[in-house]
Design brief:
single chain, mainly alpha, Cytochrome Bc1 Complex, Chain D, domain 2, two-stranded antiparallel ribbon, 5 helices, about 45% helix, globular
């Protein structure tokens, strides 16, 4: 069955995403932050080292790693390593909130590619910070 060109499976998938997002928003800050870090921002893809088979090394979750993508030839400022973000020890809370809401590092500079400059809401940024602080 199709409704407005979208099959039942498409509507079901959209509904599941909506329910997951709504449940994450109602979750305690650390759990909400986990959802944002692991399923929205996908931080582990760059900030976690990989095992020999290419899977993420959960023993070193968010412990920093070589960036898994090479820069295109036209990009000069490309990070070659993703720093440790577990614990976020080198940032004050306000610096971290600015990082997550404005894409500005603690040195006042924009983040280098390939790091996206997220524009989280203050509540989402605080949840991400709570989750990262809980990681050691």
């Amino acid at each position: 069955m199709r409704v407005n060109g979208i099959g039942i499976a498409g509507w079901l998938a959209a509904f599941c995403v909506f329910v997951a997002a709504r449940n994450a928003a109602a979750a305690p800050p650390v759990e909400r932050g986990r959802y944002l870090v692991e399923h929205v921002a996908m931080c582990g893809e760059c900030h976690t080292p990989r095992q020999e088979d290419g899977t993420l090394d959960r023993e070193h979750w968010l412990g920093g790693a070589p960036v898994p993508v090479q820069p295109p030839p036209f990009v000069a400022a490309w990070a070659i390593t993703a720093p440790r973000i577990a614990g976020l020890a080198t940032y004050t809370d306000e610096q971290a909130i600015r990082l997550f809401t404005a894409g500005v590092a603690r040195n006042g500079q924009p983040l280098r590619a390939p790091m996206p400059q997220f524009r989280f809401t203050r509540d989402d940024a605080e949840a991400v910070l709570a989750y990262l602080r809980a990681q050691h």
